[in-house]
UniProtKB/TrEMBL annotation:
This is Glyoxylate reductase GyaR. It comes from Planktomarina temperata RCA23. Residues 117-293 form the D-isomer specific 2-hydroxyacid dehydrogenase NAD-binding domain. Its EC number is 1.1.1.26. Belongs to the D-isomer specific 2-hydroxyacid dehydrogenase family. It comes from the Bacteria. Gene3D superfamilies: NAD(P)-binding Rossmann-like Domain. Residues 13-320 form the D-isomer specific 2-hydroxyacid dehydrogenase catalytic domain.
Amino acid sequence: MCFQKMSKPRIWVTRRLSDATLERAARDYEVVINYEDRPGTAEEIIAASAAFDGIIPCHSEHFSAEVVAQFSDRLKIVANHSVGVDHCDLPALKSRGIVVTNTPDVLSDATAELAMLLMLGAARHAVAGDRIVRSGAWDSWSPAFMVGKQVTGARLGIIGMGRVGRAFAAKARGFDMELHYFNRSPLAEELTQGAVYHDTVESLLGVSDFLSLHCPATPETNGLMSAERFALMPAGAVFVNTARGALVDEAALIGALDSGQLSAAGLDCFQVEPGGNPAFSRFDNIFMLPHIGSATGQTRDAMGFRALDNLDAFFAGKAPGDQL
Ligand code: DGY
């Protein structure tokens, strides 16, 4: 059945997506856009399940089992504007016959670029350096001043060698880094191009002068970086997270920075978002950004279009390319 020929499906866009995305959505669907651009509440999501055929949410809207249990029958598809879907209880949505899609691939380079920025910035005291110049406190120079950790030629550990992990590896090769990775299973050589596979996280940590997380947040990866695991890293290592805050025991991260086990960290993700962890603010050696890994204009358009491609396929009676 071709839904679109009968009437335009009704779609709720929960956040202010890119102009190009909203224009295309308005052309092909009857859309309601949340121009207030704040996270949709549980009540709004439940109400939307009765009023819309599809929703384009971001990771800021939570489709928990409790919320989904209160859904009406109208909603057919949740076409996420994100690659991560830890905000969705997939079994609960699927058990209601609701199709769920995400936006892989299109944000890999933008996220990998941000991981590179965090790695370099953390290693070279970007936060402290900026603060000193900005505050007018820069009154001397010495060979011992702001000595950082060199990235070129260093060993880089990557946890999760999916699309973003591989995009980050490609950029790290430009810095002649020695690449190591942990993944659920080893990948073909043409994908990893000489990166050394480790069959345990522990083995990877032992060789990671720099470590970057690129795996999804699942019950299995919750708290992946614990005090025990930080302790396995070489002294003075640098830790980077552009994946999800849930992967990190933040108290353990603080302990590792306090002890010097880690010399610095670069974080784009936090257990509590928005807001982050106020306890991190006392560290000049944490370079923090507010979950903007995929935030480039080009990528925002591509994410929006990918979500719309998935909706288009679904309402044309086809399987969406990114159905989970
Ligand atoms: C994603 O796509 O998962 C990013 O974290 C932004 O939502």
